[in-house]
User: Fold this.
Amino acid sequence: MSLLSIREVRKTFGDNVVLDQFSLEVEAGECVVLIGASGSGKSTLLRCVNLLETVDDGVIELDGADITDPRAATDRIRSGIGIVFQSYNLFPHLSVLDNVTLAPIRVHRVRRDVARTRALEMLERVGLADKASAKPDELSGGQQQRAAIARALVNSPKLMLLDEVTSALDPELVGEVLNLLRELKSDGMTMLICTHEMTFARQVADKICFLDAGRLLEAGPPTQLLDDPTQPRTQEFLRRIRL
Assistant:
């Protein structure tokens, strides 16, 4: 059974169909990369999986449980899903450590000492143990994004969702974040990633999915999809981003 099962999901905003009968299976430990033009539905898909958006139709299951059921325990489900956006969304008045411990203490009612110990472990994991007391504006962009990833990892999620996490970074800072994602992949973390970094996608993805107009147009191993796509629209997209 797949860890994440998305079946015939439909999502609209007014008359705009953003996800159109979208289906995807993600196995435990798998890294699935979503590519496609802006507006193709990638970010909305992640937001639906994390229950930040409500689907209009279809089913999303996480570890066999229907998380789109209106009776589902939203906070409990979200505690098992880490999500990181392109903007870091760190609270500027809090230290890095306090940013990472905020949700476990306030939302999940974890004891402060337990949350602090876990947060320090995560900051060590992402190479920021020495920045625990720093404020976000004292960090580089790459360090802030790694802090945001630590915050997403602190609850030991089953699934990580990453939405263009390098797009706001200077080119020289992209590598440190991508290296961290490679490490998470090697540790067996299940990840669903939106990215325009095709070299990274080739190196890390088990499967790449090309989205177009809210549909999964084509999916396959990196070598097949990037080097020998079958769909004309996929071929056109890849030609344009390589220019």
Observations:
- The first helix runs from residue 42 to 49.
- Residues 178 and 200 are 7 Å apart (CA to CA).
